[in-house]
Design brief:
mainly alpha
Amino acid sequence: MLSTISWSDYTITVLILLLVWYIYLIFRFYSSQIKDFINGKRKIDFSKKRGNSNSLQDHLFSEFAAPFDTLDDAKELSEKLINAIEESAERNLSQNEFQNYIIFILNEYPYVKISALREKINQLAVSECKKHPQLVLTYELVDSLWEETI
């Protein structure tokens, strides 16, 4: 008896039964939403914003909050560097004082130091220093300042 059933017949039968089962589940649990959608009272929302998922994510990653804030840290660091370079130019700091000031700021952001954003921060510092001829920073110098401590 089983030898008379081909694999294609079996596959089609299983797929039809699965389709019927899922249609039953959809109408069983989502019938009110389907009625609202058909009547035009509800629109399909494909956004992934869910209130509970954010609180669950916050709870799961609460102990790892610092590494996931690297982008915010990089933005904050870039603003601090721009302000520090402008302030150093206004105050006519010596090259050594200026480098120590930059080292002090860079040491406040250890996660940016080990991230891929470090290169962008280095480029930003070099480009900002080009606006002020008395402050000389090269890309290699800025990169080495990350490793130094005061």
